[in-house]
């Protein structure tokens, strides 16, 4: 769950996190104390009935996942995010080295 690809570019780090089956409103990212935490949850219910309304099968699934990454001194206003086709893409700027 939450397979992640991290790519380094000249100015930023880009994270692609696989979240298939999750709705956009159920995906959350939080930046606190240098840690970026991504969490997602889902609830699905499947129901099959015969003509009399008797249950032949009824299934429910509730799941959640979470993952944290240390990103250092990054301001949340500098992070960009996009969720498309089950992939969350985050772009975090690189820290400027202090001399």
Structural class: mainly beta
Major beta sheet summary:
4 strands, antiparallel
Low-confidence stretches: none
Order of strands, main sheet, comes to 1-2-7-6
How far is it from the N-terminal to the C-terminal residue, by CA? 40 Å
- What is the 3D form? elongated
Kindly state the mean pLDDT as a whole number? 88
Over the alpha carbons, how many angstroms does the gyration radius reach?
19 Å
Helix proportion? under 10%
User: With helices defined by DSSP (H or I, 4 residues minimum), what is the helix count?
Assistant: 0
List the helices and strands and how they pair.
Elements (H helix, E strand, L loop, with lengths): L3 E5 L3 E7 L8 E6 L2 E15 L5 E16 L9 E5 L2 E7 L6
Antiparallel strand pairs: 1-2, 2-7, 3-4, 4-5, 6-7
What is the structure about, briefly put?
By secondary structure, the protein is mostly beta strands. It is 0% helix and 62% strand.
Describe this structure in words.
- The chain has 99 residues and is mainly beta.
- The chain contains no helices and 7 strands.
- The strands form 2 sheets. It has a 4-stranded antiparallel beta sheet, with no helix packed on it. The chain has a 3-stranded antiparallel beta sheet with strand order 3-4-5, with no helix packed on it.
- A hairpin with a 5-residue loop joins strand 4 and strand 5.
- The model has no long low-confidence stretch (mean pLDDT 88).
């Amino acid at each position: 769950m939450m397979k992640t690809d991290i790519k380094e570019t000249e100015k930023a780090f880009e994270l692609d996190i696989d979240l298939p089956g999750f709705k956009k409103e159920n995906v959350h990212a939080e930046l606190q104390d240098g840690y970026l935490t991504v969490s997602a949850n889902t609830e699905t219910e499947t129901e099959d009935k015969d003509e009399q309304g008797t249950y032949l099968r009824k299934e429910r699934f509730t799941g959640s996942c979470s993952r944290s990454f240390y990103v250092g001194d990054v301001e949340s206003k500098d992070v960009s995010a996009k969720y498309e086709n089950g992939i969350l893409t985050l772009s975090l700027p690189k820290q400027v080295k202090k001399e």
